[in-house]
Amino acid sequence: MPAPRALAPVPDQPQRRTRWTDAELMAVDFPEPRWAVPGLLCEGLNLLAGAPKLGKSWLSLGLGAAIANGDPALGTIDVERGPVLYCALEDTGRRLQRRRRQMLAAGGRAAPLLTLETACPTMSHGGEALLCEWLEENPHARLVIIDTFAKMRGADPSGMSAYAADYAAAVRFKTLADHYGVPFLLIHHVRKQAAEDFQDMVSGTNGLTGAVDATLVLKRSRGQADGVLHVTGRDVEEAEYAMSFDANSGAWTKLDGPATDYQMHDTRTLITRFVRDYPGQKPAAIAEALQLNPGTVRQTLARMAKDGQLRAAPGGTYFPPDQGSDTTDTSELSHLSLRHSTAPDQGEHL
Predict the structure, then answer these.
(1) What's the rounded mean pLDDT across residues 71-85?
(2) Same domain, 301 and 157
(3) Where is this region: Disordered (predicted)?
């Protein structure tokens, strides 16, 4: 087995200093961080998580093509043009070609500075050397995308706790990102359970989210075009962005206005249909069946009751405004949850 390749000096960059006195630190004029997508993807290690078949790969491929061409990312954010490496490790060349042709047919353009890779060994078995080689050949690289993190992290060392293993796996990518000063984006999955804090939805332990510099979680209800991109990190401001997906072009677009405006409309629609079919349920049951954030559901139910769209009954249950208080058998909730989770999606979202 070949030994891991040592990191080469970064072209045209001095070695990073790691120690100062307090007075020296206050006098240093640090350069501004490099952004792949200003306000969204900064230098360092970024993690994008979302449910399977939700559109993460469309999103990451679209970002890579936009940056490689210098086109507005997500249709609205100006970016600096430069080389991008997209490791599509769950795809084939044919599938990537089909997606790119779909993008180009909808008005996109070819991206000569976008490198597409479909096979890469794990980090400890040659993957790190492969990434270093590409970065050294492209000293002006703007972004490296690993789709997915699980395909390239490799096996965990024996005897290591799950937290330590997640942290160590992420740090291997972060070391490269920091050394070369290039933003890395790891594509990952979320848990099946909903959570109050969107970071808690990321699959794995807190060691993973603790190691990365920024966490992004993409959420979209099945069968819905609109979604929300949650972002938090060390150099990026915590925010929620309203998003829209076009299945014909495979393009994600950042919408104008706060995400809550779009969330409220979609959430109220889903809750109205649910309560009409299954009256007499409590907020926790509604959130679980619809796979929505419990806190959002509680707030939305209270507002809908105040607006006369629902009726709150004793015991914390909810009914349509024109129905009585006869409850529906809660065993039927499993049928709705199954129907919701298997609803046909819009196009192929990987």
Answers:
(1) 96
(2) no
(3) 311-350
Same-domain status, 118 and 48: yes
Domain that holds residue 171: 32-258
Query: What average pLDDT is seen over the chain?
Result: 85
The span from the first CA to the last CA of the chain, in angstroms, equals: 33
Alpha-carbon gap, residue 137 to 249, rounded angstroms: 32
pLDDT in tens, 7-64: 555 555 556 788 999 999 999 999 888 999 999 999 999 999 998 888 899 999 999 9
Domain co-membership, 201 together with 58: yes
Give the closest residue to 193 by CA, choosing from 332, 336, 292, 299.
292
Task: Note the helical H segments in the chain.
Answer: 22-27, 56-69, 93-105, 127-137, 149-153, 162-180, 206-211, 259-277, 283-290, 294-306, 333-341
Calpha distance 211→310 (Å, rounded): 43
Helix axes 283-290, 333-341, angle to 10 degrees: 30
For residues 174 and 42, is the Cβ–Cβ distance under 8 A?
no
In a domain, 3, yes or no: no
Residues 215 and 305 in one domain: no
What is the spatial distance between Cα 50 and Cα 171, in angstroms, rounded to a whole number? Answer: 21
Number of structural domains, the chain? 2
- Is residue 271's pLDDT more than 50? yes
**Does a cis peptide bond (omega within 30 degrees of 0) precede residue 148?**
yes
Q: How is residue 11 written in tokens? A: 């072209």
Which whole number is the average pLDDT over 151-177? 94
